[in-house]
Amino acid sequence: MNLDLDGKLALITGSTAGIGFAIALGLAREGATVIVNGRTKKRVNDAINQIRDQLPEAKLEPLVADVSDSESVAAVTRQFPKLDILINNVGIGELKPFEKISDQDWLKLIEVNFLSGVRLSRFYLPLMRKQKWGRIVFISSESGVNIPSNMIHYGVTKTMQISLARGLAETTAGTAVTVNSIVVGPTSTEGVSKFLVNLAKKAKVSVAEIEANFFKHERPSSLLQRFATPEEVASLVVYYSSPASSGTNGAAIRVDGGVVRSIL
Predict the structure, then answer these.
(1) CATH code for residues 9-187+228-255
(2) Where are the domains of the chain?
(3) Mean pLDDT in the chain?
(4) How far apart are CA 77 and CA 55, in angstroms?
(5) Among residues 124, 154, 239, 240, which one is catalytic?
(6) pTM (2 decimals)?
(7) Which of 30, 103, 130, 250 is surrounded by the fewest CB atoms within 10 Å?
(8) Is 239 an annotated catalytic residue?
């Protein structure tokens, strides 16, 4: 399928590794000019070099910025005053019992996972409506639907993203701008892989056994019964970033491996 992304400028927050990197690579492969974002120059340069190793012709722009605060977002919008595609991917999480989650813990996750997307969308969405085309995608999680008891604050921020995306979509009625959220299931990102390796070492078992036990006890409803790859998630995101997805707006689209037991 030709997704017709030549000439489109895309920003993917947190795109130096994992799902964000896979999305950046996928969009670059379809001809978009991709802004690769990370918090350090080394991470950004390494990611750009990795993409160019696979796609020498890729059109890439570096963006060293921590988009979790308002001043950094203001600097981003000055550097890139116009976008066609915004992928709000940056996010953090931590395992912590509810009674141990401090106000600061809550504020940190809300700032990174939620307000980064609020601030960027607040700037770029009106411009997309004015230019009569645009795509905004929030990378949410099945944890926003099935709130995990050991990281409630993370789950809440992912629910907030889904709600925000739907609300923003309501402001685009009758335009060629769409706002959607992607509900991602357990995925084999850099952080997850390190976590599994550490668990396997402590338990003195294989990583495969840890993964099998995770799906048996923590995500028994998974139909996939394995971690998705970042590329599997990215392929869906790339489609919903393209003109081909024009009929979908305000949706929470699942790439969760069947974890959420729902027909909708």
Answers:
(1) 3.40.50.720
(2) 9-187+228-255, 188-227
(3) 96
(4) 27
(5) 154
(6) 0.95
(7) 103
(8) no
